[in-house]
Specification:
There is one protein chain. By secondary structure, the chain is mainly alpha-helical. It has ten helices and four strands. The strands form two sheets. The chain has a two-stranded antiparallel sheet. A two-stranded antiparallel ribbon has the order 3-4. About 35% of the residues are buried.
């Protein structure tokens, strides 16, 4: 029940944020895609949490949610294979758009910042399972969903675009960043909601850069790399 109430809060916040733009620019809003985006978010969470804990984790002695991540990733790939989505439209391609040079520079700077932070706060490397998990699953699972299938659905729901340094950013894209921040910062537990502004900002703000990288390059490759470096760098020092 806690997870259901958490999801309800996430979805409610996004709906509330969507209403002003829908009223102001109704002709550029498609309700069917917005409902599809929110449905995808709920289904993704159910897979990630293994049916809210109904399915036990595997391997059983693991410290990390390997099975949940694999299930969520598999679900994302199934959605991306559907005709209305498509792997290329979701950014599941190694090809980068022409003019992606600036994106490579931004990616390099972002990775350098995370390694600098990791080295500056070094407290000893983690065990091998943690290193393996943090260097693979967060970026693959979360980027293919948030900057892939969910972004496509939100972009289709909100058709307007604003060019930011050559990257077409939609209001729907911004809402995916809000959802990403809420997934890390807002939860329901022990009879009350708990909102961590610091976690929301630490995850939501960097996701704006990942959104820009995705839209600038037309691919999730750079967001996946940046995400895994952000998680993995701190496990090495």
């Amino acid at each position: 029940m806690d997870e259901v109430l958490t999801l309800l809060a996430h979805v409610s916040v996004v709906i509330a944020l969507a209403i002003p733009l829908v009223v102001a620019a109704r002709s550029r809003f498609r309700m069917s895609w917005f409902v599809a985006a929110l449905t995808l978010y709920v289904l993704y969470d159910l897979l990630l949490t293994r049916g809210v804990g109904v399915v036990p984790n595997w391997p059983p002695d693991s410290s990390w949610n390997w099975l949940g991540k694999f299930l969520a990733l598999a679900g994302t790939l199934v959605v991306a294979s559907l005709p209305r989505f498509g792997f290329k439209r979701c950014g599941f391609t190694l090809a980068q758009k022409p003019g992606s040079g600036l994106a490579w520079v931004v990616l390099g700077l972002l990775c350098a910042v995370y390694f600098y932070m990791a080295i500056s706060g070094a407290d000893g490397h983690d065990n091998w399972e943690t290193i393996a998990f943090q260097w693979t699953m967060p970026g693959l699972d979360e980027e293919l969903f948030y900057r892939g299938t969910l972004l496509l659905a939100m972009n289709e729901a909100f058709r307007g675009r604003l060019s930011v340094a050559g990257a077409p950013i939609s209001y729907g894209g911004l809402l995916t960043c809000v959802l990403f921040g809420l997934a890390h910062g807002l939860s329901y537990d022990s009879g009350m909601y708990d909102f961590s502004a610091s976690m929301f900002l630490v995850t939501g703000v960097p996701s704006l850069i990942l959104l820009w990288l995705r839209e600038k390059t037309g691919s999730v490759v750079m967001p996946v790399i940046a995400h895994n470096v952000a998680n993995g760098a701190f496990t090495l020092f």
